[in-house]
Write a structure and sequence with these properties.
single chain, Rossmann fold, 271 residues, 8-stranded mixed sheet, two-stranded antiparallel sheet, alpha/beta, 41% helix
Length: 271
């Protein structure tokens, strides 16, 4: 599966991932005076919705632009505010914030954002985007999977492109390595929903390596009949902060209700 950030920026999966991400950052703040966050597959940080990739895909038009143009579900309030903050509202939505911008915009002077991006051109764009945020940031041209086993973090976002056959295995390995550095680390993992066999196999591997509590949020935008399509989005949260279940469920439910097809559904459960 080829999942280039710029091609898919602002689509339904981004909305799911980023709304849950903001829920997690808010929940973690009262517990910690300072946060170190690692983003293993950071991307460019901010995306031009008028760019060539978006003109071809039209995914933002069916995602964030459709969401903003209609009734805005309350569960998406923080993400809507972030999108508006990045744009001149009178001129519509021209830019979409990726996870680096969203995370760094929620951090303060005692916190640290570490974004890993191996593609030089994308990394240059990330450095420019991070220069506009108030929090201390580091952009590293390194393998994010390896970084989490070498660098302390309170929170990790793992969002690979799933272009390689071993992305699921490396993700599970990375979580186990991160726990070796900080046993209390919270990890959020985005995965596409194509078929349940792939998700279930990944969860078995993840649980076997970590033994940790895992909260799964599924936004099934259509029934999972065709494994060749991205039928939905899943957020897998390792060691979820207490009390987030309702907010996480609200995001998936609102997304499916607003943008899903007949037969779509939201599911929230502990693995």
């Amino acid at each position: 599966m080829n999942y280039r950030h710029s091609f898919h920026a602002g689509n339904f999966a981004d909305l799911h991932k980023h709304a849950v991400l903001l829920v997690l950052l808010k929940a973690m703040r009262p517990e910690r005076q300072a946060l170190t966050v690692i983003d293993t597959h950071a991307g460019a940080g901010v995306y031009d919705l008028g760019g060539e990739d978006q003109v071809r895909s039209q995914e933002a038009a069916r995602g964030v632009q459709a969401l903003m143009a209609g009734d805005l579900p309350g569960a998406f309030g923080p993400l809507v505010e972030a999108v508006r903050a990045l744009n001149s509202w009178e001129d519509g939505i021209e830019l979409y914030p990726g996870s680096p911008w969203l995370i760094a915009s929620r951090l303060g002077g005692d916190d640290l954002y570490i974004g890993c991006e191996v593609q030089p051109q994308v990394r240059e764009q990330l450095e420019i985007a991070m220069a506009t945020t108030p929090a201390p940031t580091e952009v590293r041209g390194v393998d994010g999977y390896e970084t989490v086993g070498e660098t302390f973090a309170d929170f990790i976002l793992i969002d690979p492109p799933y272009e390689r056959r071993d992305d699921y295995e490396r993700t599970a390995q990375a979580v186990a390595m991160a726990q070796g550095v900080n046993p209390e680390v919270v990890v959020a993992i985005w995965t596409p929903l194509k078929d349940l066999e792939t998700l279930d196999g990944f969860l078995r591997d993840l649980k076997g390596r970590t033994g940790s509590e895992v909260l799964v949020s599924e936004a099934r935008m259509r029934p999972l009949h065709d494994p060749m399509k991205m039928n939905g989005s899943a957020m897998v949260i390792v060691r979820p902060p207490r009390g987030i279940d309702g907010d996480v469920a609200g995001v998936a439910e609102a997304l499916v209700e607003a943008l899903g097809e007949p037969g779509g559904e939201a599911r929230i459960w502990l693995a």
